[in-house]
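Hello forum,

I keep getting stuck at the same step: I have a sequence, I want structure tokens, and every attempt I make locally crashes halfway through. Rather than fight my setup again tonight, could one of you with a working pipeline run this one for me? It's a single chain of 199 residues.
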Amino acid sequence: MRQWPARVRELVILGHSAGGLVSRSACHYATAADQEWQRYLQHLIFVGTPHHGAPLERWGNLVNVGLELSLFSAPYSRIAKIRSAGITDLRYAYLRHEDWRGRDRFAHSPDVRAPLPLPHGVRCYAIAAVSGKRGGSRGKASGDGIVPLDSALGRHPNPAMALQFAEPHQWIGYEMNHWDLLCHPAVYERIRRWLQKPS
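Reply #2:
Ran it on my machine without issues. Output:
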């Protein structure tokens, strides 16, 4: 913030996929440390962010645990453990160091996260995608092919874990996949409209 060539009046963060999780984590730690930059943060836009994890990493974890059951496949399990902490965080969207404290990140375990609400005083928006057509059932469960629809919109069966995105701050793109969200004109238009007319 101090090095920016002009005076900063407003900060907007746009996070695609895990970038949205990194942004939420950064806001949590910035608040705890009273860092100056967060006072300028006005808008936080999540694009295809797995707020409650991604099934692909959960399936990968189960496969990894299964490989360890046999002496013949155990070496492949060690290869799978090369994946980064950032990837294993995607299992349930762990955002804090405490979420992993005393636990092996490669062991199979249930979701034990403590609730972490959206940052206070910041306008937060969620963009999700569905591979099927509007009104169709195809694609709703799988969402954009990587992030389920409910996870991208912060929905959770436990009300304490659900993220409270205001209805006008949610948008679903149909007939799109996870990577389409990066460059689709409709996504850009939605972001532009939110930033021009904040609610």
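Residues 55-100 form one domain. If your local run keeps crashing, start a new thread with the error log.
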